[in-house]
Amino acid sequence: MRRLRGRSLWPAAALAAALVALPLVGNDFLAYQVALFLIYGIATQGVALCWGRLGFLPLGHALFFGLGAYLAGGTAKAGVAQPLWWLAFPLALLLPALLAWVVARLVFARRMRSGPYFSLITLAMTMLGFLAAQQWTGLTGGFNGMGDIPEPPGLERFSTLYWLVAAAAVASTAALGVLVGRPLGVLWRAIAQNEERLQLFGYATDRIKANAYALSALLAAGAGALFATHQGIVTPQAMSFVLATEFVIWAAVGGKASPLGALLGAVIVGYASAELRDHFATWEVFVGLLFIAVVRFLPEGLSGLAGMKVLRAARPRLAPVPAPPARAPRQVPALVYDNVRSSQGGVRILDGLSFRLEGPGIRAVIGPNGAGKTSAFNVLTGHLPVIGGRILAGGRDVTGQAAWRVARMGVGRKLQVPSVFAELTVRENLCVALWAGRLNAPAALRNAPHAWHTPLLDEMLGCFPELAASLDEPAGRLSQGHRQALEFVMTVLPEPHLLLLDEPCAGLSPAETHQMIQVIQRAVRRLNAAALLIEHDLAAVAALQGEVYVFHQGRMLAQGSLQAMQADVAVRAVYAGARK
Amino acid sequence: MTMDGGTLLHSLNLVYELATLALTTLGLAVVFGLLGVMNMAHGEFVMIGAYSVVAVQQWGLPTIAAFPLAIAVCAALGWVVERWLIRPLYRRPFDTLLATWALAMLMRKVVEAIWGKGFRNVDNALTVAVPIGDTSYPAYRLGLIALAIVLLAALSFWYRRSSAGLRVRAMTGNPILAQALGIDTQRLASRTFVVGVVFAGAAGVMLAPLIRVEPGIGVDYLLDGFFVLVVGGLGTLGGFAGGVGVIGGSQALVSSIAGQTSGYAVVLIISILFLWLKPDGIFSRR
User: What residues contact A38, with CB distance under 8 A and at least 6 apart?
Assistant: First the structure.
């Protein structure tokens, strides 16, 4: 455990050493100047958290920086007259974070891939904030700014305040460094890579994103509060489009995936700009060129070049501990499709699909291309709109519910094209699946869940020794067959009692198909679950030995044993191409 | 401006505002709407257009020479940018956004290095006013309105009827299939981008006599343009006109009642609501 902390903390430790040395090597004035860019660097870390970890770009982080600065400045000024006001100081950090959380919840809850739209919303909000800061002269001092902000009690602006700023920078670097290695950090990266897959495990990704955005706003607001005391004055520039732009540039140049890189990006580029701007007329042209070069050639920024990325594969082995029980319901949720209709772009996809599934066992779904097999899954997991009829799972109407809500009712889904988190290791992929329904908020911040094991996980790894042999490989390097195996294992790890398996044998060799079918049967028996399995290969369907559903033109054509289906006139007509 | 013209003057002003908004947004509609490239440097191409007027007047050339200059500069720059900056980044929307943003910064800084940060007014030879009814209106503005209408109609006609328009639509709809059908999508994308930024530059030339020309003007054109496209949705003339109407109209209306700042604030709020609730535009069915 101690060794582990040491690994994620070395960037912060190195930073601490450098920041202690700075005033000794240089002088107080240098320290004062650098402190300003350390402050900007903390806000930049917030931008880098959202962008480098979760994959959405906040274009308007100056809003929270400025809000934090104005609120902290106002509170500090009020505190001079009435010291009780200092009690309200934490609100200067918490209110901007709350605003960020509310905005992100509202936006992310509406649609999953709101990426660039979200960026533009944050940008527009910052411009609105800038207008407000300029207009509400009574509150903000308008264009001239809010001046005469006192120093924090016991600190002197040009000497000791540096230590507060340095401590804050070290603290945020350390905290972020630790967080990205924890289960929450793994989930953040998983969101950036494949949010849809994560939702199918039952993670409310919009909430995880909103919380992360609130955390990044908290960092920005904290930096803003430091800015107010450091500068003694806050002008609308602290909430401007330009500053928001600079946060993004610093994060890109320094390295959006690394907390220390983002901080140093702000300190080095920012400080160098402030120093060199006046000496070289072309300095800013140079910064522009540097920025273009980084975006084009160095997606991980300068820290990626320096290999400063947080070490992840090097995580030391923890002794396996049993995982807590899954929260998914313990019995098969009865699944009822009642005259379900769906269409997209004017094409009727499901045309009154009805069936009823109760009790454990495997059902194979067959039908020609376009029969609506995958679409039947898609309407259940919220990927296709339902325009008529309803779907019940476990007696509850789940029509049009979000994927993660359906997943939490004990529905697991494997996608047609094997869908894994390509840049996470196989081990991390398995962890993400295992954590589904088991990881609560405190556990997400601890290391222990990395060592969680369940009997099912051990059994599945026993069935797929090739996965067990490549636990520390990135999942993106696996072959198609191994990816199929990995996604199947991931699908069963949360122990759902209804499995939707979309062509789990596609792209597999006959031997692999045979192996996969056996593992599926084994897992389904083990979980006492029901499975709906889409399959084109009738030999595989025969091997499954379950009931067969035949779909055609968005409806259930027939159901029964495979022999009965092969004898069925209507089914034969569909497959043999007779007139229908 | 006096209030003497009454309603007619007001409506002419409104039409003029909408026409300028349409002119400056047209290039972005081509680049963002057809290629899906969030060109954050769009406003800077408008700015370059405006500065080419400054340049030709400095060199003592007739103002009309700014057109070929702006077109040449924007086309060359657009071609280079598409080839070396944007083409490698298709399908990486955030990176395209950042790369063009960096480009915008670079363009601003270069212009600042040449002409300085201060603003410049350019001379306008066409200050004649045309009498309309019982009021009169600057001929230049009327010409601008007419030009905006003609350009919109021509672009829409080209997009709907010409074979090049068909190819562009094929490329937008399904680039891989378009390639399989023998359409050189790379070249087409390059040309589309160049056409888009040339539109922006030409708009800058036309607006130069009416605005304060300074290096930082691009941002406003960019944001207004994005807001128009967000409200209007992409790829249809009706949506474009709707977006121009909503954004330009509400800005003009609120500005005249409650001042410029409130007008701008209302545009921001409308845009946030659209981005949040109807990101596919006013006519989308979702």
Answer: A19, A165, A166, A168, A169, A263, A266, A267
Domain ranges of chain A: 10-305, 335-576
Minimum CA–CA partner of A289 in chain B: B106
DSSP string, A463-501: H-HHHHHTTTSBGGGS-HHHHHHHHHHHHHTT--SEEEE
Predicted model pTM: 0.89
Q: Of A131, A241, A291, which has the smallest distance from its Cβ to B264's Cβ?
A: A131
Residues of chain A with pLDDT under 70: 1-7, 111-114, 281, 307-317, 577-580
Weakest mean pLDDT among A285-294, B18-27, B90-99, B143-152: B90-99
ipTM score: 0.83
CB contact at 8 A, A407 and A496: yes
Partner B contacted by A117 (CB < 8 A): yes
* Beta pairing class for A388-393 and A321-322: unpaired
Closest CA to B42 of B227, B248, B258, B260: B227
The distance of B31 to chain A (nearest Cα, Å) reads 16
Architecture of the domain spanning A335-576: 3-Layer(aba) Sandwich (3.40)
Residue contact A128–B94, C-beta within 8 A: no
Residue B97 to residue A368: CA distance in whole angstroms: 42
CA distance B207 to chain A (A): 24
Strand partners, A501: A414, A533
The C-alpha atoms of residue B123 and residue A541 are separated, in whole angstroms, by 81
A291 touches chain B (CB under 8 A): yes
A to B CB pairs, distance under 8 Å:
94
β pairing state of A335-344 and A388-393: antiparallel
Measured in whole angstroms, how far is the alpha carbon of residue B185 from the centre of its chain? 24
Residues ≥6 apart with Cβ < 8 Å to B206: B23, B49, B144, B147
| Alpha helices, DSSP H, located in B116-174 | 139-161, 163-173
Q: Which residue among B95, B112, B265 places its CB closest to the CB of A295?
A: B95
Give residue-wise pLDDT tens across range A410-425. Answer: 999 998 888 899 999 9
Cβ-count burial A55-83 (b if 16+ within 10 Å, e if not): bbbbbbbbbbbbbbbbbbbbbbbebeeee
Half-sphere exposure of B155 (CA within 13 A, CB side): 24
Are the beta carbons of B38 and B96 closer than 8 angstroms? yes
Nearest-angstrom CA–CA distance, A445 and A185: 9
Q: How far is A174 from chain B (nearest CA, A)?
A: 28
**Which of A506, A507, A562, A555 has its CA nearest to residue A375?**
A555
Report the distance separating Cα B23 and Cα B26, nearest Å: 5
Give chain B positions within 8 Å (CB) of A134: 261
* Sign of the Cα pseudo-torsion (A476, A309, A178, A239, in order): negative
A113 interface with B at CB cutoff 8 Å: no
Q: CB distance B276–A106 less than 8 Å? A: yes
A292:B113 CB<8 A: no
| DSSP states along B261-278 | HHHHHHHHHHHHHHHHH-
Q: What digits encode the pLDDT tens for the residues A140-196?
A: 888 888 988 888 888 888 888 899 999 999 999 999 999 988 999 999 999 999 898
DSSP A205-217: HHHHHHHHHHHHH
